[in-house]
């Protein structure tokens, strides 16, 4: 790691910060108290000596009380509003919460100060720092081999529960460990969920870079927002490539079959129809590989993917995969296994991407190697602990996952780091996906048949030229005078 002469770590957590919220409240209230004292001295005090009845003191007293209540309410309201909007006072609240947690868990150094009259204990906290970035909270702990060293290494899960924020990574530095939490939901509206430059924008801080994290697994509970998430992804993918849709329950996605742009690309009526879709996808994948190897402009280079040769991506969305796979007999299941496995394992370089969606991604619904190679994974809605384990794997079995009653909310694993809190693109109440899909006049479909014919024509021209060169060499071998090839035909 690159060393820095000076690195800003944020605000150090001090022992007096346990009353930090009250200190700020008093700081902002103090000027108003000064103003009240000056006004009382100049206006109320000269008239107090003239009051002969105690009832005459009620108006000044009530005025002062109302003034203090109004000012206090305004100050506390603005502080609370700033906290809710993740402003400056959110940082103040987190720092107060953090120092109280450290004190309650006895992360405190004590030192006795003995004087002639009494003995006092001075308390000091370790060098813990708090830093609130635009979309992250960072808490830094010292690793100096002291008595709190081992406990500081295990603070991630505790802080995640205290802040009710998702731990997205741990950063190690020399003699320090930093815990980084997601402070902002990062949710984007549906009109910002677009595909560009090989990525689909899902949140402010999260993109699906499908060239790097090929294929996707979506696990969604009933009413969790899975269908809207699929619609959002389909709309984004439709603008950059080919989209095929299969619906194992002939339910939500089947309705897209009536939209003109999806004619011939939606399969749901019978299982055999969806199997044919997978078979055609596998055939196209092989055609793509064959086409790329015959390319001359640009010339084929090993390691380059479909985008280098100007090919569009091809996305196959399969909703309710578990229902479809579970309804197959043994013979049909074997056929599907032979189709889905090469698509998932070999499709990335050819630009073929599989998106499988279901309620519970149990291992019995996947052939060997398929679930592990669905690199980008998303959960939406309330899942059980075993549901999270099936979705994100054994590597994150100790990570705390929290369920919230918010449609479209869940977790996402982009293929690296750890699963992070996820919010599907926000869909407006008056937003209609069908009307948006009807705005597309045609789908991007690459016709490999034409390209193959073109390649055959090119190869035919090359063969004809090669044949003429051979004939010329044979003629020159027979005619030592070196008569030109064209003259030979004239003669």
From TrEMBL:
One of its GO terms (molecular function) is ATP binding. SUPFAM superfamilies: P-loop containing nucleoside triphosphate hydrolases (SSF52540). The keyword Transmembrane applies. Residues 203-389 form the FtsK domain. The keyword Plastid does not apply. ATP binds at residues 220-227. It comes from the Bacteria. InterPro entries: FtsK/SpoIIIE/SftA (IPR050206), FtsK_dom (IPR002543), P-loop_NTPase (IPR027417). The chain crosses the membrane at residues 21-41, 57-79. Keywords: ATP-binding, Membrane, Nucleotide-binding, Transmembrane, Transmembrane helix. This is FtsK domain-containing protein. It comes from Enterococcus faecium EnGen0180.
């Amino acid at each position: 790691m690159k060393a820095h002469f000076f690195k800003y770590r944020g605000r150090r957590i001090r022992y007096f910060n346990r009353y930090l919220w009250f200190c700020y409240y008093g700081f902002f209230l103090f000027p108003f108290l000064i103003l009240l004292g000056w006004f009382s001295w100049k206006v109320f005090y000269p008239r107090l000596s003239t009051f002969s009845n105690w009832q005459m003191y009620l108006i000044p007293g009530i005025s002062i009380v109302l003034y203090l209540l109004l000012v206090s309410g305004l100050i506390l309201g603005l502080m609370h509003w700033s906290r809710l909007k993740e402003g400056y006072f959110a940082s103040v609240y987190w720092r107060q919460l953090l120092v109280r947690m450290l004190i309650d868990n006895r992360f405190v150094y004590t030192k006795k100060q003995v004087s002639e009259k009494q003995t006092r204990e001075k308390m000091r906290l370790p060098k813990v720092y708090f830093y609130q970035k635009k979309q992250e909270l960072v808490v830094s702990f010292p690793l100096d081999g002291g008595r709190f060293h081992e406990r500081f290494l295990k603070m991630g899960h505790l802080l995640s529960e205290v802040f009710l924020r998702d731990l997205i990574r741990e950063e190690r530095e020399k003699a320090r460990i930093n815990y980084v939490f997601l402070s902002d939901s990062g949710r984007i509206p549906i009109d910002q969920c677009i595909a560009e430059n090989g990525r689909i924008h899902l949140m402010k801080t999260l993109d699906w870079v499908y060239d790097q994290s090929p294929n996707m697994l979506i696990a969604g509970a009933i009413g969790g927002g899975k269908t809207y998430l699929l619609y959002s992804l389909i709309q984004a993918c439709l603008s950059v490539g080919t989209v095929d849709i299969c619906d194992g329950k002939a339910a939500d996605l089947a309705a897209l079959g009536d939209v003109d742009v999806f004619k011939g690309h939606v399969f749901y009526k019978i299982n055999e129809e969806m199997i044919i879709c997978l078979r055609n996808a596998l055939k196209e994948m092989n055609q793509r590989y064959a086409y790329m190897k015959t390319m001359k402009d640009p010339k084929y280079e090993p390691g380059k993917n479909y985008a280098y040769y100007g090919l569009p991506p091809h996305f196959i969305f399969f909703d309710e995969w578990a229902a479809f796979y579970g309804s197959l007999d043994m013979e049909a299941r074997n056929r599907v296994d032979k189709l889905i496995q090469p698509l998932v394992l070999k499709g990335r370089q050819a630009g073929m991407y599989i998106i499988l969606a279901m309620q519970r991604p149990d291992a019995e619904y996947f052939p060997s190697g398929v679930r592990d190679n669905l690199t980008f994974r998303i959960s939406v809605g309330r899942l059980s602990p075993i549901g999270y384990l099936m979705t994100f794997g054994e590597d994150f079995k100790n990570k705390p996952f929290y369920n919230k009653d918010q449609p479209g909310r869940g977790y996402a694993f982009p293929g690296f780091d750890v699963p992070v809190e996820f919010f599907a693109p926000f869909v407006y109440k008056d937003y209609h996906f069908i009307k948006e899909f009807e705005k597309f006049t045609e789908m991007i479909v690459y016709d490999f048949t034409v390209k193959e014919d073109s390649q055959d024509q090119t190869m035919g021209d090359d063969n004809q030229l090669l044949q003429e060169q051979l004939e010329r060499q044979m003629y020159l071998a027979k005619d030592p005078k070196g008569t030109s090839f064209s003259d030979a035909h004239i003669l």
